[in-house]
Amino acid sequence: MLPSIERPKKLPVVLSFREVKRLLKAPKLLKHRLVLALLYGCGLRCFELCNLQLKDLDFDRMMLHIRQGKGRKDRYVPLSKMQIRGLQTYLRAEQPSIWCFTGNNSEGKAVPLSTQGVRWIVSEARKHSGIRKQVTTHSLRHSYATHLLEMGLDIMSVKDLLGHADIQTTLTYLHVAQLGRQKSFSPLDKLYKQD
């Protein structure tokens, strides 16, 4: 039995599966599609994505090592085959040396991609996808957690994948996930099926 939880005052913005697909398809650049795919597909925080280094990619084990996430904690999250194929193509083409994703500083020197750069990628993808919801980098993390719960992953596993210190933080997703014996519906759906 789960502990009783107080409903959070503000629930997170969660994208539908269709909206995630539209968002991932929106950017023309593979690098930008991969940034979105890692934010959503691994539930990364913006700064965690910016700090990703080549040594953190474990294609053999299909895992991503997140070093010094929030609370200075390390964790592993699974990588999908699709992410690995995209990353391998990107790495062959771009040949980064330390950081997975780079930007350029004022002298034109490669530096880790900035959080501002990641936010811009998400904002542009939202614009081009036609999604009207307020989509932020964290919306992709919220969608990751909610979708995992809806797909049947248990709350403790989701907590570990997100790197949450406290289960109360993860329990918020139970308010937005469509779970239970029967999916919620509007009475109008049933009312007009009677005819």
UniProtKB/TrEMBL annotation:
Tyr recombinase domain mapped to chain residues: 10-186
Domain of life: Bacteria
UniProt KW keywords: Chromosome partition, DNA recombination
SUPFAM superfamilies: DNA breaking-rejoining enzymes (SSF56349)
GO molecular function: DNA binding
Gene Ontology terms: biological process: chromosome segregation; DNA integration; DNA recombination
Xref: InterPro entries: DNA_brk_join_enz (IPR011010), Integrase-like_cat_sf (IPR013762), Integrase_catalytic (IPR002104), Tyrosine_recombinase_XerCD (IPR050090)
UniProt-recorded name of the protein: Probable integrase
